[in-house]
Design goal:
Rossmann fold, six-stranded parallel beta sheet, about 575 residues, seven-stranded parallel beta sheet
Amino acid sequence: MSFIEETATVTTTAVHAAGGTLVQQSSIPGIRLGGSFRFRSGQEIFLRKLAEAFAAGEKNHLGVFVPGYGKTITALSSFVVAKSLGKASKVVIFVPRGNLRDQYADPKELSRVFMSIGSPPFTFCVADSDRVFLKNINTDIIITTYQYASGKGGHKALKTFCEHSPCMFIFDEVHHLSDDGTWATKISEFPHSCSVALSGTPLRADNKTLFGVPFHSNGDEQFYVALHEVSLRDAHAEGRILKHVSTHVVDYTIMLYNTKSGERVEMSLGELAAVSTEKNNLDLFFARKQLRFHDEYIRALIDPAFARFAEKRALLSSTTGGSIKRQHQLLVIAMSNKHAEAILTVIKERYPQYSSARIGQDVPEEERLRLLQEYRDGSIDVMVQVDMIGEGTDIKPISVIIKADLVRALSKTLQQVFRGMRYYDGFPEEQNVCDIYTSNDAELVKILEWLAQEEQIGLKLKQSREMKETERREVGEKERDWRLEDVQHNFTKSHELTLFSMPDDSPANYAVTNVTQREQELRTECSLLAQKLTNMLKSHGRRIEVHSVHAESKKRFGRAQEEMSINELERKKAWLDQCIKLRRLV
């Protein structure tokens, strides 16, 4: 899939004839769209804001775009804007991975991009050898990795290049670039005139600030300031950018044995995750790690995923009548090379009908690259990997993900699951669904719930926009049925308008709560928590039923659940949470 094909059409520019060729005239400095190419709405907004910010003397900017939205085109167009405004004559593009470097450095794709946006054919060079780009010091575009820029030879060469003429910096996937890290320290020594940082997730698990990213502080916390942000809900509202998401969470009952004391403890995986996090208990952390090698853990996680995988493949075959360009593919995220090997062994034993392989740092590079290419091409159905398929790896037919590692940080988890969330035109709309299978670690469930919530909000926004567009067309059609026949003056009357007054302390924007809906949500949450508490107490040998929990609640709060107000339901929910935490009725 090319850069150009990843960018959707947005009709916001005027068409005029120039030398017999239709050209899209853009008001963005340096941009002159040609042919049928259009920016996506988020790209266009960002570039317009960037031009305004450069004109105002602001130098460093952040753009947040979900994966699949077209960061590459945005980055290259940003340089065209900066160059046209006299802010920079060259650009250095920094990326965290070699595959991203190679993605930028495709000469055919670069030509198509610059032709489409109406800029001159720039020169470029991949900075992996200082002899090449220093010898050609007037090269317009240098594409390098953070690692090369920080190494002794690369650092010296790039510094010389940047000192030669005004350079713009583009930091792709800037979440890799912590402000106090070695990479940032080295890059900060390079002179540059302006910068653009791009990321789908400009956050770090260690909460460190990012180099080249504007931040503001409220005293206790720091927040990034994006020039423009295309969120998950925005992408779903725009459509044909991300797949829909379906999440599947598997829980386990675990028996732990203390080899020193002889004590045995039984708990769920969710409880184990919570205890190991709260108490920073390394023994329990390693128990979770050991658990992931257990045959029952692996089977319980992969069996439903493969059942869904088979179902999706069969449905696609029947829908297309057998004329399939690409089939669905499955990705497994393991926590170590040994873990990946153990999972692959189970897959080959239980599902030999699928071609499967694994890649990791222990696999020789030549073989690893070959296997990855075969997976890209679709000749491998299932890939088990450890952090080898990340940013810049674009395999859109991936539509089933098994997340079996211990990573729970938001930014890293999103980067992982985004590998299967890019919309694929080769599948029908209803089959553009990414199924994610994972175990019940509490932190990850919250992230998956958030993903689903963002999708639902985006789809509602899309539906609302489509309804408004339909209404606008219908009104226009009705107006065309009428013509103006006569106009006569009747009379004139004056009216005095009085606005409703608002209290001085009223917020500028406020949300209206649907009380009925909120009550129902709280009742549902309380019922689920009561069931969870019952199951937990039974697992610890206490015979108790759900109705007993509700009876205890009625005794405590003086009302049955269906009679409770929102405040009372929130108090009941807090009480149930406390009971679950203490593992007893309090």
